[in-house]
Every structure is written in C-alpha cells, then in structure tokens.
Design goal:
- The strands form two sheets. The chain has a four-stranded antiparallel β-sheet with strand order 3-4-6-5, sandwiched between helices. Strands 1-2 form a two-stranded antiparallel sheet.
- Helix 3 runs antiparallel to helix 5.
- The chain is an alpha+beta fold.
- The chain is built from seven helices and six strands; from the N terminus they run H-E-E-H-H-E-H-E-H-E-H-E-H.
- The chain has one domain: 3-Layer(aba) Sandwich (NADH Oxidase).
- A hairpin with a 2-residue loop joins strand 1 and strand 2.
C-alpha cells in the first residue's frame, strides 16, 4: 500500500559545495509558466540549464540530442507563430529547441524527453520559469525545422520557453491511490 503520509515524511536532499536542493521540492514546485518578465536570462544560468540537459541519461549513453538556444526575438516570434499552443514563446526572453537524431539511439524520443525534463527542473531550481512546447509529430514540426534550419534527418522534440515568471500558477495532482496498482492494472 502506498502512503501519502509516508511520502510527506521522506525527503531527499542533494548537497554539494555548501548548496542543497530538495529534489522533491523542485519536482513538486515546478509549474508551466507562460508569462514572463522581460528581464534577460544571464549567460551563466543558460549554461547551467544546457549542462543539465547534457547530463541526462540516454539509452546506451548515445546522447542523441542537440540544443538550439533561441536568443533572437524575431526567431522566437517566428517559431511561436508556427506552433499551435506555444504563442507565448514570443514573449519569453529565451527559448531552447531540443533536437533529436532518430538514428542516434534506440530510444531517441525518450532520451530527448529526459534531457528536456532535466532542463525544466534545473531552470526551476535556478528561479526561472519554463513551459514545454511539444513539437514532435505535430502539424508544425516541419515549419519549425525550416525556421531553425534543422537538417531533414533530425526531429524537433520540444521547445522550452524560459524567463523570469510573471505568474504563479498552482495545480494539484491525483492521489496515489487513484493511479497506482500492484501487479496488474486495477488492483
């Protein structure tokens, strides 16, 4: 039996060089942010975010990803206009496109998703906001590839909008008893 009470007692703290991060606090606190201030994201933070993506695990350690940093406002505007649900990217001070090599791994989509999630959590831990804009297999993936001049043999998995949050959304989650089963579905 899974106990919510037990989960609230357990914490996992990582510490290094005098810094500590409550892992579960970061996971539970991160929200999709679609409104940003216009304050620029410092270069050292951008490098930390990219490094978090780089350190994601991947099948056979193949690392089938590349990252395109979207600094130019006009580029972000064009990409935002191409998307269905990512119009807010044009108002973010920064974006990152996660590009995968479909032949670079046995699980390139999963590998790219882990890299994306690492960057989302790192960004939150740095006090910034993000939103994952799905692109893979979308009606606009080819248009985004054209805008960003991505080779035909690569795929755009996701686009991450990044900036200092200008909103504080709150969401809840289903209870574990609603979604966790033992040994077979429904039991």
């Amino acid at each position: 039996m899974f106990s919510e009470e037990r989960l609230s007692r357990d914490t996992c703290t990582l510490s290094r060089e005098g810094e500590s991060l409550e892992v579960f606090e970061a996971i539970k606190g991160r929200r999709s942010i679609r409104k940003y201030t216009q304050e620029p994201v410092p270069e050292d933070l951008v490098l930390k975010i990219l490094d978090a993506g780089r350190w994601a695990p991947s099948a056979s350690n193949r690392q089938p990803w590349s990252f395109i940093v979207l600094r130019d406002k006009e580029v972000r505007r064009k990409v935002a206009e191409a998307t269905t649900y990512g119009k807010f990217l044009s108002n973010a001070p920064l974006g990152i496109a996660v590009v995968i090599d479909p032949q670079g791994s046995n699980h390139p989509v999963e590998d790219g998703a882990i890299a994306t999630q690492n960057m989302l959590l790192a960004t939150h831990a740095l006090g910034l906001g993000t939103c994952w804009i799905g692109c893979y297999n979308s009606t606009y993936e080819e248009r985004v590839k054209e805008i960003l001049e991505i080779p035909k043999n690569r795929r755009v998995l996701s686009i991450i909008s990044i900036g200092y949050p200008a909103e504080s959304p709150t969401k809840t989650r289903k209870e574990l008893r609603e979604i966790v089963f033992t040994n077979k579905y429904g039991s």
